[in-house]
Amino acid sequence: MHPHLSGADVRMSGNEWIVFANHFWSWRQPGYDIAFPLWGQWLALPPEKRTPEHVARITDAWMDMAERELSGIVSPSDVRLMLLNRLYGSLILDIPAKEKTEDPDAVEALASACEAEANRLLS
User: Fold this and answer.
1) pLDDT 10s digits, 82-107
2) Strands 16-19 and 10-13
3) 19, 81 in Cβ contact below 8 A?
4) Mean pLDDT across the chain
5) What is the model's pLDDT at position 21?
6) In a 10 Å sphere around its CB, with 0-12 CB exposed, 13-18 middle and 19+ buried, how is residue 46 labelled?
7) With contact defined as beta carbons under 8 Å apart, do 45 and 93 qualify?
8) In the chain, where are the structural domains located?
9) Which stretches does DSSP call E strand in the chain?
10) Is the Cα torsion angle 112, 107, 54, 85 positive or negative in sign?
11) pLDDT tens digits, 32-69
12) How much of the chain is helix, strand and coil, in % rounded to 5?
C-alpha cells in the first residue's frame, strides 16, 4: 500500500488510471489507511473547533466505525497505535508548518488539542 496516497497521486488518462509517487509503496499492517482520514479531519478543523473535545469526537466516530465494520481486519489497539503515529507526526511536522499560513494562536490550539488526544489514546 501507499502510506500517503491522496487524490493528487491518482490521475486518469483516457481509460487508464495512473498512480504517481509509487516509490513509497511497501507493506503496511492491515487497516493502516484508517489513520489518514482522521489525520486529515484533525488538521482541517477550523480554528473555533480546535479543541480536545472536537478532536476526540472525530476519533471516537472513526473508532466506533472501525470496531463495528473492520473488527475482522484490525484491532482497536492497533488503530490507537496508528492514530498515535499520525498524531506525533503531526505535532512534529504538519502543525508547525501551519505557522507559515495561520494565526499562531490557532496553530497552538490545534497542537494542544492533538497533544490532548494523544494522551487520551495512551490512557
Assistant:
1) 999 999 999 999 999 999 999 999 99
2) antiparallel
3) no
4) 88
5) 65
6) exposed
7) no
8) 1-29, 31-122
9) 10-13, 16-19
10) negative
11) 888 888 899 999 999 999 999 999 999 999 999 999 99
12) 65, 5, 25
Residues 100/102/103/104 CA torsion (nearest 10 deg): -50
Q: Which residues, listed in sequence order, are joined to residue 89 by a DSSP beta bridge? A: none
Q: Beta-carbon neighbour count of residue 33 at 10 Å?
A: 14
Report whether 79 contacts 66 (CB < 8 A).
yes
- Rounded distance, CA 49 to CA 53, Å? 8
Question: Which amino acid appears at position 44 of this protein?
Answer: A
